[in-house]
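Input sequence (130 aa), recorded before submission:
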Amino acid sequence: QVQLVESGGGLVQTGGSLRLSCAVSGRTISRTAMGWFRQAPGKEREFVASITRSGGSTDYADSVKGRFTVSTDNAKNTVYLQMNSLKSEDTAVYYCAADLVHYYSVRNPALASLNTYDYWGQGTQVTVSS
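Predicted structure, token format:
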């Protein structure tokens, strides 16, 4: 059974930083493409970032490019999302997701789609106050 558990969310001021973690069990992340998504109140869940298996390639939504960084620690089987220069519009519940089927090792537009992913975490709240 694959489980994803996010942590690291919280309240931060505009311009601040947070690092989200996604601890994965039941699946080795070096063999798994991972994604981060977010959902703000009243809005649809949207793509934030992805990283291919073995950390080969990363991709980011235009709204976070240059501010967010996705990375992995294979020893801890954990995926991270480092978020810097946070803005009020980054306020949302953040979810990590795992793609167990496609074995993407290079950047692929499909990793920006919710439908690509098979397992999801429960989400962690990020609130950015001005």
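Checked by second reader. The longest strand covers residues 18-25.
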